[in-house]
Amino acid sequence: MITDLNDILSTNIKGMKRSAIRELLKFLGQPGLISFSGGFPSPATFPIEELKGIINEVMDNEAAFALQYGATEGDALLRTMLVNRYKASGVDMSIDNMIITTASQQALDLIAKMFINRGDYVIVGLPSYLGGLSAFNSYGANMIGIPMDEEGEDPAIMEAHLKELCGKGQKPKFIYLIPDFQNPAGVTMTERRRKEILQLAYKYDVLIIEDSPYRELRYEGETQKTIYELDGTGHVVLLGTFSKIFCPGFRIGWVVGHPDVLDKIVVGKQATDLCTPPFTQRIAARYIEKGYLDPKIAEISKMYAEKQKVMLDSLAKYMPEEVTWTHPEGGLFLMAKGPESLDTNALLLDCIKEANVAYVAGNSFFCDGKGYNTMRLNFSYESIEKNVEGCQRLGNFLKKVIKK
C-alpha cells in the first residue's frame, strides 16, 4: 500500500464524509431492531410478478436494445412515457426537456459538478436532504440555510441573503428546494410560498433546483403545482425518480429543464457513466405502457397513509411532552424535535443498544451544524405493528433520557 494515501487524495474527496444514513444500514441485521432510519420503500410495494413477465418479454423481443449501450439522454420510449405523464397533469414540456439519470442522486451530483466551483454559494433549506447537501459539499459549496415554517422556506430571510450576496458579487449558483413532503421535515410548501420564492429567483436571476421524489405519494390535503409548472421561463430545473414509487434498485431518475441546461448535464453524465442502463429503462417504460404504474402508486399511497396515521397516533401516545413533531401530508418522513439539551446524535447508539430502535440524527440535515435536538423518522419501511412498537420503545427511551 502507498505510504501516505491522504497525500494524494483530491480536495473534493477530502471534503466528503460517509453518509450517516448509509452507515446506519450496518445495524439493520441486528435481531429485533426496528428501523425508522432509512428512506426505504416497503418491500411489499415491489411489483414482482408484473416485472417477471415484463423482463421475459424484453429479453424475448428487445434484448439487442436492452443489453447494449444506450443514449446518454436516456431511452426515448421511457422519456416519452414520463413526458406524457407530466403533460397529463398540466405541465407544458416535450422530450427535449427531459433526460434520464441513474436515480436522482446522480442528478444532484451532476448539477453540483455543472455549477459549483469551490467557494461558490448555494441556498438550501434548514434542514434539507442529506444527499443534496453531500453532493454540494463534495464540490466545495458554501451552503446558506433558510429556516422553514409550516409553509416552507422563509422568503424574507432568503431575500436578505440573496440581497447581501449579490451586493458582494457572490450571487448564489442556485436555490435547492424539496417543496413536496420535504425530506427530512415532511413540510409541503404552499403555492403562495412557491410563487414568492419564484419571484425572488426572477429578481436576483438565480436558478431553482426543485427536487421532487415524493410528489405522487400524497395522503391528505391538496396537490400543489410544481414550481417548474408555475415558472415557464427556464429558471427551474425539476428532478424526479422512480425510487419511491416503483423500484429503488432500478436506479432510474430524471431531470426536466431548459435544453441548454440539459445539454451541459449530458456532457457531465458522459464523463460519469455514459448512460443509465437501457435494460432497466426499457423495463420501466413497458411497465408504464401496460398501465401498471398509476394503480401501483394508488396502492402504495393507501399503504403509507395507514402507516403515517399509525405513527402520528403512536407518537402522540408514547412520546414525552417535551417532544414535538411535524405532520406530513405525504412522503415517507416526519421530523421530531426535543428540548435544546437533547443530543440525538450522541444518543443514537444508546438508543439502538437499549431500545433496539434506529433513527437518523437531525444534525446531518442542517448545513449550519445545528439541529442536534431533532431526529428524522421514516414510517414507510416497517410494518404497522412495528411502527407502534418502535414509537413506544423510542418514547420510553426519550422519557428516561429527558428525565435524567
Strands, helices and their partners?
Layout: H1 11-14, H2 20-24, E1 34-35, H3 48-61, H4 63-66, H5 76-88, E2 98-101, H6 103-115, E3 121-126, H7 130-138, E4 142-149, E5 152-153, H8 155-167, E6 174-177, H9 191-204, E7 207-211, H10 227-231, E8 236-241, E9 253-256, H11 259-270, H12 278-289, H13 293-318, E10 324-325, E11 333-337, H14 344-354, E12 357-358, E13 360-361, E14 374-378, H15 384-403
Parallel strand pairs: 1-12, 3-4, 6-7, 7-8
Antiparallel strand pairs: 2-9, 4-5, 8-9, 10-11, 11-14, 13-14
Helix pairs in contact: 3-12, 5-12, 6-7, 6-11, 8-9, 13-15
Quick synopsis:
With 404 residues, this protein is of the alpha/beta class. The protein is 43% helix and 14% strand.
Radius of gyration: 21 Å
In CATH, what is the homologous superfamily of the largest domain?
Type I PLP-dependent aspartate aminotransferase-like (Major domain)
What is the name of the CATH topology of the largest domain? Aspartate Aminotransferase, domain 2
Structural class: alpha/beta
The coarse overall form would be globular
State mean pLDDT (0 to 100 scale): 95
- CA-to-CA gap between the ends? 48 Å
Strand content: 5-15%
The proportion of residues forming helix, as a percent range, comes to 40-55%
- Which runs of at least 5 residues are low in confidence (pLDDT < 50)? none
- Counted up, domains total 2
Spatially, the strands of the biggest sheet line up as 2-9-8-7-6
Kindly provide the name of the CATH class of the largest domain: Alpha Beta
The major pleated sheet works out as: 5 strands, mixed
In CATH, the architecture of the largest domain is 3-Layer(aba) Sandwich
Count of strand segments:
14
Oligomer class? single chain
| Element order: H for helix, E for strand | HHEHHHEHEHEEHEHEHEEHHHEEHEEEH
